[in-house]
From TrEMBL:
Protein name, as recorded: Heterokaryon incompatibility domain-containing protein
Signal peptide: none
InterPro entries: HET
Lineage: Eukaryota, Fungi, Dikarya, Ascomycota, Pezizomycotina
Domain Heterokaryon incompatibility: 9-126
């Protein structure tokens, strides 16, 4: 740890330490500190443990807006738009109550697709596998826990805005159809995200696959499941699926990009 002591000075890690202490938790696991980044051997040994780490963690703390360790957990917000206010109103019985709420900042449902957390491939299993997660985003805190979730300042008619991340757990349902559809949604979400290293394409989703395999006892081959192969071989690259031409000209679609490094067999979605 002495070698990485300078890394602890980064804003995000300092914020994580403060949050952990405030929660009264003794241990904090940070991937870039607990996995030796320059060691291929250590990376290969530790990366396969992601499923166990996230599933058995008491709580996952993550930042939606930070693209690196220097961004911090807490985003800068306009203080004027977050001043709470009270509205006093009487009940017919004569009892008076106060409604305490922050001022509405924008629409209740926010588009989070452009935030780094939802654009990075490695972050998907972090969200899906964690039993509990606190997500710091530009609009406040989001609390996500199976099977429910909520967001600070995002109440409408007393109903918390729903976090879609854990709906991907449909993949772990008991029915064959449910598992197949669930995995389809996971792959669809995952393939929209980016990876720094193309060679991580199957590794970064391996934790979710491991969790699903434990429940289904189904053989897993390079991103496809044995029992659903006849369905999952029908994948295509949506980016190249253009609307049919309005005339009778022949449209030549560009071939899907394939990495020079062999990542998966050509029949797997992970190969493109």
């Amino acid at each position: 740890m002495r070698k990485n002591s300078h890394v602890l000075s980064t804003t995000s890690f300092q914020d994580a330490v403060v949050a952990t202490r405030k929660l009264g938790v003794r241990y904090l696991w940070i991937d870039s500190l607990c996995i030796i980044q320059d060691s291929k051997e250590d990376w290969e040994n530790e990366s396969v443990k992601m499923c166990e780490i996230y599933q058995h963690a008491l709580l996952t703390i993550t930042s939606a807006h930070s693209s690196n360790a220097f961004g911090g957990l807490i985003a800068r917000r306009d203080a004027i738009l977050t001043v709470p206010f009270e509205i006093e109103f009487p009940f017919p019985s004569g009892v008076r109550r106060c409604l305490f709420s922050p001022m509405p900042r924008r629409e209740v449902v926010w588009d989070t697709s452009e935030l780094p957390l939802y654009k990075r491939g490695w972050c998907l299993q972090e969200l899906v596998l964690s039993a509990r997660a606190v997500i710091f985003d530009p609009d406040g805190l989001r609390w996500s826990a199976l099977p429910s979730s909520a967001q600070s300042g995002a109440l409408r008619n007393g109903i918390a805005s729903h976090n879609m991340d854990h709906e991907l757990f449909d993949a772990f349902g008991e029915s064959t159809q449910g598992r197949s559809i669930g995995w389809h949604h996971i792959v669809e979400d995952y393939t929209k995200r980016s990876l720094t290293k193309e060679s991580d394409r199957l590794i970064a989703i391996a934790g979710i696959a491991e969790a699903m395999q434990k429940r289904s006892r189904n053989a897993y081959y390079a991103g496809l499941w044995e029992n659903y192969t006849h369905l999952q071989l029908l994948w295509y690259v949506r980016h190249y699926r253009e609307p049919p031409p309005t005339n009778f000209s022949i449209v030549h679609e560009p071939p899907p990009y394939r990495s020079e490094v062999v990542i998966a067999p050509s029949w797997s979605w992970a190969s493109v």
